[in-house]
Amino acid sequence: MPDVEHPPDGRWPLRAAGVLVAVNVAWVTTGLFHVWTRPLAGWIALPVTTLLAGYACWRLADHPTLDAATRRFWRQLTLACGLFTAATLSNAVDALGSGTPSQRLGPITLALYLAVLGLALWALLRLPPWQRTRADWIRFGLDACMVLVTVAALVWHFSIRNHDDWATETGSGGAMLAILVLTWLSVATFVKVAFAGAGCLDRRALHALAAGTAISAVVGALAPLLISRPYLSTSMVAAPVAAFGIHLAAVRQRQADPLAAAPRRPSPRVSLLPYLAVAAAAAVLLATGTTDPVETTIMQVVTVTLTLVVVARQVLALRDNNRLLATVEYQATHDGLTGIANRALLERHLDGLLAAQRRFHLVLLDVDDFKTVNDRLGHSVGDALLTVLSTRLTDVVGGHGLVARLGGDEFAIAVPEDADGAPDVEALVARVLAATREPVEVAEQTVLSGTSIGLATSRTGDDPPELLRRADVAMYAAKAAGGGRRHWFDPALDRAADETAHLSADLRRALAQEEMLVLFQPIVDLRTEATVGAEVLVRWQHPERGLVSPDVFVPLAERNGVIVELGYWVLEHACRHAAAWQVRYGDRAPTKISINVSARQLAQPDFVERVEKVVRETTVDARALVLEVTETAVFSTDVAIPQLTALRKLGLKVALDDFGTGHSSLSLLIDCPVDVLKVDKSFVSGPTADGAGAIITRNLIGFVNDFGIEAVAEGIETRVQAAWLRRAGYRLGQGYLFGCPMPAADLERRFAPPKED
User: Gene3D superfamilies of this UniProt entry (predicted)?
Assistant: First the structure.
């Protein structure tokens, strides 16, 4: 954070105030052994220190970097310092005005001192952390009551009760008692807030205020001890010390980081204040004995009063603790986002059903394409979608089962069966699928979602983890089948999962064992059917299983991360072949070598650097390379578009594969740097090719040409399809009509003869 420029910090006035405090302490201390004939000198420091404190508060109240609540606090302390100055002047007049020094405290002085304390308390309690619940205020009120009763009893017992002459001298023992009680109440409040924090008020400033008030209160309580020295007053030390504490607090606040709130410490689990108050009152009661029945009765009343207040305080604390325990229990067993049960509560519920030997079904749901929603629309929209889905699930399930969120985009439903087998879980799951397919309106966005569902039925000897595992296996089977459907667990899925695990392990070593091979599928000019390029494809020749379909091993490579190194391996081999053809065939070499790039590759921070290194080391002309990406790959990471832009600067082209199958393909043509568009084969040779597919294909070529983008029609299988595409305006095509994926040597035979040396 940059340094904040502060105006002068006011240290010289603070040092001057400190000197005045020291002078007055020395004045009063000397007065214990020496009679001062000119007591006015002892009163001069009081209004000076309060004015200096008020000036420091006033300068701080307009500091532009403080928040509004903190500035208001220091404005109110400025006003308190003004009243404090008036109180010290009035106190001096009371003490010296009659011509003979005295310790008299008049009603105006009393009112001013009480106003100072009351205003300071009010300023403190208005700070943000004190904007609390009614229970907080009740607790604070009970604490204040304990302080009032205890301090009043202690001050009366030790300072005032046996000093009738002092009461006569000061005009009223009750006046001093009121000031001392309120002062100690201020001490308790300042100390409490100093430990709890108060808005953006600096904690060191709060400590200075608490310390100044506490020392002032201790000194003030010693007033009866000076009754024989009317030329002295505890105000001569108490007032400057309190003013110095305010002044020091203002300086501390100015030195603090004005933009950082003081960290709030957690309140202690057990408050010692009630017990200390009762202990103090009980000790005084025991010390009083029976020599003075009136005093004994007073202390008994005090002790009983404190005991009742403490009981009320502890009952309130017990109620709060019970409420806190209930809250903690709820938070420990419910999802923080959706409010439904979490994994812990679900497992506890499953344990109960299993212990009761009650047959039930576990339904596991995973939101399809949830990561795409998060990446495209933001996590806030994703969270809102999860909340809506949890509500729908709860409404559909009703009282038939427990709905829980396991984390992320996974939900679970435990559905117990009645004696007659109700409810019909198949019908229930059908309603769940229908509910999750309904569009969700979130933040002016229409989100389409669906779920893949796995189901498992409880068996003897089950435990929650095993049930969740079986449901999870079934859910992934539903997702592998295309999503948006349900699948029951059966043992064959376990065997398939084991098979997949073994295949995954084999795939990790396939590159090192040279089991992967590169094939090329021709891209032709539809007008001449001459081969102008090829898409690079990878195949796996397993030593035991034979040729493994890419539909099997590519998703597996995506899941276990092998796809990243596999992609770079394919890129290097494709570039070496392309470079060799460029040398051998010159300008007759293929001009479009298309290489597929996975989403995980595109998300790698060093992807561009690694591509550049391969291009440089193989000496291939980058202008002949086309990197094919899918819409999902582009949307799955924020770095995709910057990566593709950087690749184009290296001379490579970018192709958007499977165009037309995503939700936002048209917007990609604007946001994504695209050179080539590959029209998905479902529009060319799929079930809709003669209907909606034909309409889409015919209209695509128009605006693609307007964008200056080349189009390649994929999946051409018949002469009729090729002729129709050529008439529609397509120049490039790819499909089994023109050739299956083939080794590099077979592709070379389609080129013109090598250039002569």
Answer: 3.30.70.270, EAL domain
